[in-house]
Amino acid sequence: MSTAKGTASPKLWVPGDLNGFFGLATNSLANTLVAVGLMQFVIGFPSEILLGRIVPGLVLSLAFGNIYFAYMAYKLGRKEGRDDVTAVPYGISVPHYFLITFAVMLPLKNGGASFETLWAVGVAWCFVHAIIAVIGAFVGPTMQKLTPRAAMLGTLAGVAITYIAMGAAFSAFSASWLSMVSFGIIFVGWLANVQFPGKVPAGLVAVIIGIVVGWLSGYMDPTAFSNALAGASFNFPLPYISPVVEGMGFLFSAAGLPILTTAIPLAIYLFLESLNNVESALAGGDTYDTREAMLAAAGGTAVASLFGSPFPTLIYIGHPGWKSVGSRVGYSWLTGVTMFVLGILGLLGILSAVIPVVAILPILVYIGMLITSQAFNASPRRHAPAVAIAIIPWIADYVTTQVNNALGAAGTNAGTLGLAALQGAGVSYAGMTVLGAGSILVGMILGAIVAFVIDRNWKGAIGYTLFGAASAWFGFIHSTQLRFIPNAPFNFSDPAFNATWGPIVGYLAMAVLFIIMMNYTKNDPAPKLED
Whole-angstrom Cα distance, residue 303 to residue 426? Predict the structure, then answer.
């Protein structure tokens, strides 16, 4: 419980931080292990590069960001005289570690590139994200002022309910007999606010019970623990400037330009998600300086690239969830310190071999629930339809990914199977791919249009339809490639161009409609904007 504003003093650690720590640290641990696993098993990096350069740079970037955001929370608490300020969560971007693996490094590897080249291109690709994220830090506050909260929180709810909550829930229920125990503990402790004996935090109880049940039931593998223990080694992060320069040279060459252009929309996604998560914290009562927060996230990405990690970082979703369980400043800095120590000592694999992942996943489901609830509760009630439509592109994106993965597992793909066959089975694949491409920006644009229309703010609606048309034209949304990719001919018969032609026309048609409405309703009484 917070003290009255203006009289309290923030603390570096409070009991509620333990809840947040077990949630954020285990989330960071899981993401780190997956990212490192992709580098090891898909790309095949030798230990010298993976454990000696990539992992130390990765955990340094996590320590940098989490400690800085803890400092920002402490500073805000001191400034406002509050002891209830919660640091924004931070970590590596989940989509990006899949994309750097399968869309950047793997094609280069199949083309015969050496591991040194793959690593150099990876850290340079990450550095490009840092540059664009810095630019976004100066554009972001303006976007925040021009965009309805329902649109920003709605698109955030989209990723929360799909990739965070649904993805975690599906995986958790693969071992439902174990995960549902953790679900019950989380629900009782964090939703019903029941204190466990000895005031042990619910997050810690869930992890402990999960470990006990997992090992006693034989779910966990002792051999994996032994192998992880034997493979532990010490590696300290060191700066690597020349590989970044070498990789940048490749990205700006004819061979590397297609890879460089993939970084642009992905970096826009990166700073938009950070921006939306700052807005989420603002809705929760913590008014962080948007530019400083986004520059800190960009700084974490720069630290990652300059110290050997190819994984961009960002402000995480989840601030309302951690705030609701009593986390403040300590959960953030302790997560950063813990990940750093585990990384440089080579202990990450040991911890993952001890804790069942399915016992941790309910925490992510809880965070997805809270974020989605906040999108509706913290936005004006009249803007609820705007929140709803902002979620839909994420569902399209998520379902498209699931369909692609299923077809890939069957040894085929949508192109081989044919869109007509999918349509005949009730799968509107073509529409899903167009709607879901660039989902974070699509959700924000559609949500903003709906919110402005509800308020009869025709100028705002027109502005966002034109912004949507321009974004679709250049391929930032509703497309899988940018318009200025080399060797992509600009003509109306190009299927890639036609794929986005429909949304472009649609946005422009809506703009014309709203211009007509602006004149048609100019004599109507102003709508009552009540909630």
Answer: 46
Sign of the C-alpha dihedral computed for residues 108, 234, 95 and 174 taken in this order:
positive
Instruction: Give me the DSSP letters along 284-304.
Output: TT----HHHHHHHHHHHHHHH
Domain boundaries of the chain, sorted by first residue? 17-379, 380-522
Contact status, residue 148 vs residue 448, Cβ threshold 8 Å: yes
How many other C-beta atoms can be found within 10 angstroms of the C-beta atom of residue 401? 17
The Cα–Cα gap between 332 and 91 comes to 10
| Residue positions counted in the chain | 531
Contacts for 31 with CB less than 8 Å, ≥ 6 apart: 91, 92, 94, 97
Backbone angles phi, psi at 11, to 5 degrees: -120, 150
By mean pLDDT, which of 49-53, 199-203, 388-392 is the weakest? 199-203
> Across all residues in the chain, what is the average pLDDT?
86
Greater model confidence, 47 or 266: 47
- Report the pLDDT value the prediction gives residue 1, as an integer from 0 to 100: 39
- 456-497 pLDDT, tens digit per residue, is 999 999 999 999 999 888 888 888 666 654 444 444 444 444
User: 268: helix, coil or strand?
Assistant: helix
Distance CA 508, CA 377 (A): 32
As a whole number of angstroms, the distance between CA 470 and CA 473 comes to 5
